[in-house]
TrEMBL record:
The keyword Metal-binding does not apply. The keyword Signal applies. It comes from Chryseobacterium culicis. Residues 49-202 form the PorZ N-terminal beta-propeller domain. Keywords: Signal. It comes from the Bacteria. This is PorZ N-terminal beta-propeller domain-containing protein. The lineage of its organism: Bacteria, Pseudomonadati, Bacteroidota, Flavobacteriia, Flavobacteriales.
């Protein structure tokens, strides 16, 4: 699949509001999972926990939970290491790609220039971080580096190169005037002096394959199965043989070893307690005399089986989202690769299934934990059009493939399997992708690999099964169908074709009409058709593996003798150029103002004017909280204007300015207001407008300084007058009428230069 290469707030730190960072704003929020705890620290009755995509703060006495992610201050996702110094209120986050965030009460600073050993081509992720005072030791795959937290600069680095092979520092800590590192060949140490960077001058304190280390009043370290206190050069083994140690933590008065149970010891190594929290933990600590575990699947957990975490889906992995009334959400976590061919579920998520938000909390069906099918790869999930307490999902796998119907139990907050529809499938064949429902509540499901042909399943209430509609066309791939004007419009990846299915009577296959579009209809020679959406004019916006195509007045055009699609041509440097030429268009969504959201594989998300001629916004992972530049799904809540961006690395939302646009005005709002130039240098937004609004902006004397026609429910004024120069300080009045003059609205804008 071709990808487009792009080069291009109030945030929480130490439980305080601090100055905003450019990458985030109050319009963004995350729907990340905070279940998998990687590391924890205590600060005076508050637990700070690091997870894959963010950190959160849990106040033990009040139960208050606040979170910090890329949506409100962090600069990245994929957290792999974390530490925090309660004395200086400074935290340090390490990421998968080797970058770091330094969190202080004043700012969050992004560090991208971590030293890299010459000739090293391995993983750059931060393995571990340990803070001592104003110094932090950063463990990586090729050794370690010292980072000064006060001036936010790197000091010495030691590259563990021996015999031409780099050795990883699994974890490291500063103890006394030495740095101690655990590696797969031993416990290494070195004084922080001039020969520190020279690996041959490092001392092997103890041979062995060591994984974890920590220090406070004493130094403790461990292998997978044994933990030691290191006292004056002598390792003393703790009196327990472990199954697999996940972490060792030492405080001023205790040692905590996390295995399949959580073990606590005195500083002298005397065993105190062993507690099972009923599930796997990555780390644990003691606070207020209690043991708190950082679990793999449930956030922070105490000895009484209480869990503490921000609300969110079970995992971050997501592919598709569906919005329903009463703020319900269904997130499908499946995946496809190789040009929409075979399933592509990462090994760490063997059976993610779907996640359900019931309007107040997230539910993860125990079905996917206790008794899942042999293989699970859910590409779509919807609330049944026949029963609001039931959910249907597609299982796009090589075995156990088909449609599953589950019933939600509000009391137990869980789902139980009602029926499995195999679509007449054999292993590897008839793999379902996505659902569509028409206004008569007819239910359809698309599926591929039906003897090499794309097909549609049509639910028949009488038989409680699916009728199979197959077209003769060489294309195993198929996408989720989109209902428009009594027809199903279905992209066909892995072929340069598009299928429009006029089913007329849903359960009568004899009266159907099929329209198959291809190269002769104007599609370029791409690898496949990927997405489709319809705007208010009835135009079909079709995303292909090689660009964007439009079918004007699609419901009529498709029935013509030679229906045609066409590219959007925009002017670039005086020359016409095809919009998104040779880029894979993963998803298209249309908001209430008829503006288009377009996801370009590898290129982030573009927000386009209604005609596609103007780019209003362009979000990428570099300039926004997007987790990645490949967004697999976009959904717009047209009532609120909120936009959902779905990726394999998690979901974020953006509060758009366009909501519930009609021919009349809504709740007109101007922001920022007043506009103080020293604080804000952008455009003023006026939202809540009619679908077409005539705007006049006048000064206090009644002189017109600006006029415009706004379409789509909102308008941005650059604060320039008719001559193109910035208006003077003062109060300005916005006078507005809708298209036929039947509705009016006014607003005031204060300008301070």
């Amino acid at each position: 699949m071709k990808k487009l290469s792009i080069i291009s707030l109030g945030i929480l730190a130490s439980l305080q509001l601090i100055k905003a960072q450019v990458i985030s704003s109050k319009k963004w929020a995350d729907l990340f999972s905070y279940n998998k705890i990687l590391a924890m620290k205590e600060d005076n009755g508050k637990i700070i926990a690091a997870t894959e995509n963010g950190i959160f703060y849990y106040t033990i006495s009040t139960g208050e939970i606040t979170k910090l992610s890329k949506a409100n201050g962090l600069h990245n996702i994929g957290i792999t290491a974390f530490d925090y110094n309660p004395q200086t209120k400074t935290g340090l986050i390490g990421y998968e790609n080797g970058s770091m965030d330094v969190i202080t009460p004043q700012e969050i600073k992004y560090i991208v220039d971590i030293p890299i050993a010459t000739g090293y081509n391995g993983n750059k992720k931060i393995n571990h971080i340990s803070i001592t005072g104003d110094q932090a030791v950063i463990s990586v795959g090729y050794g370690l580096s010292i980072f000064n937290l006060q001036n936010k600069e790197f000091g010495d680095s030691a590259f563990f190169l021996s015999g031409g092979v780099y050795q990883a520092s699994n974890e490291a800590t500063i103890f006394g005037n030495k740095v101690y590192s655990v590696t797969d060949t031993g416990l290494k140490s070195h004084q922080m002096n001039t020969t520190f960077p020279v690996y041959s001058t490092w001392t092997t304190e103890a041979p062995g394959a060591f994984k974890h280390i920590d220090s406070e009043s004493e130094l403790v370290f461990s292998t997978n199965t044994a933990a030691y206190i290191y006292n004056n050069g002598t390792p003393t083994q703790l009196p327990t043989t472990f199954e697999k140690i996940r972490d060792v933590v030492i405080t001023s008065n205790s040692i905590v070893v996390t295995d399949n149970r959580v073990y606590t010891y005195g500083i002298n190594g005397v065993s105190q307690n062993a507690v099972s929290l009923g599930e796997e933990c990555n780390t644990a600590l003691t606070a207020g005399g209690k043991i708190l575990g950082g679990t793999v699947l449930s956030g922070i957990k105490d000895e009484s089986n209480n869990t503490f975490k921000p609300s969110g889906p079970f995992f971050n992995f997501a592919y598709n989202i569906n919005l329903f009334d009463n703020s319900q959400l269904l997130v499908s976590s499946g995946a496809r690769a190789n040009n929409y061919n075979h399933p592509a579920i990462p090994a760490q998520l063997p059976s993610p299934g779907f996640y359900y938000f019931n309007g107040t909390e997230w539910i993860y069906p125990s079905f996917f934990v206790k008794n899942p099918p042999e293989f699970v790869n859910v590409l779509d999930a919807i609330i049944s059009p026949y029963n609001g307490n039931e959910v249907l999902f597609t299982n796009y796998t090589m075995r156990a493939n088909g449609v599953y119907r589950m019933k939600y139990n509000a009391t137990s907050k869980d789902f139980e399997l009602v029926k499995y529809y195999d679509l007449g499938a054999q292993p590897y064949y008839r793999r379902p992708v996505g659902f569509a429902v028409d206004p008569q509540n007819n239910l359809f499901v698309s599926f591929g690999f039906n003897d090499g042909n794309p097909s549609m399943g049509i639910y028949d209430k009488t038989s409680d099964d699916f009728l199979i509609k197959k077209i003769v066309l060489a294309s195993d791939g198929i996408q989720k169908p989109v209902f428009h004007e009594n027809m199903l419009w279905t992209p066909l990846p892995r072929s340069n074709n598009f299928w429009v299915y006029d089913y007329k009577s849903a359960t009568n296959l004899s009266d159907d009409t099929d329209y198959i579009l291809g190269s002769s209809n104007g599609f370029n020679s791409s690898g496949g058709i990927l997405s489709v959406a319809f705007d208010k004019s009835g135009d079909a916006w079709i995303g292909t593996d090689g660009g964007l195509r439009i079918m004007r007045n699609a419901a009529t055009e498709i029935k013509s003798s030679q229906p045609e699609v066409e590219p959007i041509v925009i002017e670039q440097n005086g020359l016409g150029e095809e919009l998104f030429r040779e880029s894979a268009i993963l998803q298209i969504a249309v908001d209430a103002g008829d503006y288009k959201w377009v996801s370009v594989d590898g290129g982030g998300v573009y927000y386009l004017s209604a005609d596609g001629q103007r780019t209003i916004k362009h979000f990428t992972k570099e300039n926004s909280p997007l987790p990645t530049n490949s967004v697999t799904d976009i959904k717009v809540d047209k009532k609120t204007g909120k936009v959902y961006f779905v990726t394999y690395n998690g979901i974020v939302t953006y509060q758009g300015d366009v909501a519930d646009v009609t021919s009349n005005f809504g709740d007109v709002m101007v922001y920022p207001n007043p506009v103080v130039y020293s604080n804000f240098k952008g455009k003023v937004t006026i939202k809540g407008l009619a679908e077409k609004t005539n705007i006049r902006i006048v000064d206090a004397a009644g002189n017109v300084v600006h006029s415009a026609v706004a379409r789509g429910g909102y308008y941005e004024w650059d604060l320039n007058n008719q001559k193109g120069t910035r208006v003077a300080s003062g109060i300005y009045f916005v006078l507005m009428t809708n298209e036929d003059g039947s509705d009016k609205a006014t607003a005031k804008i204060g300008v301070v230069n």
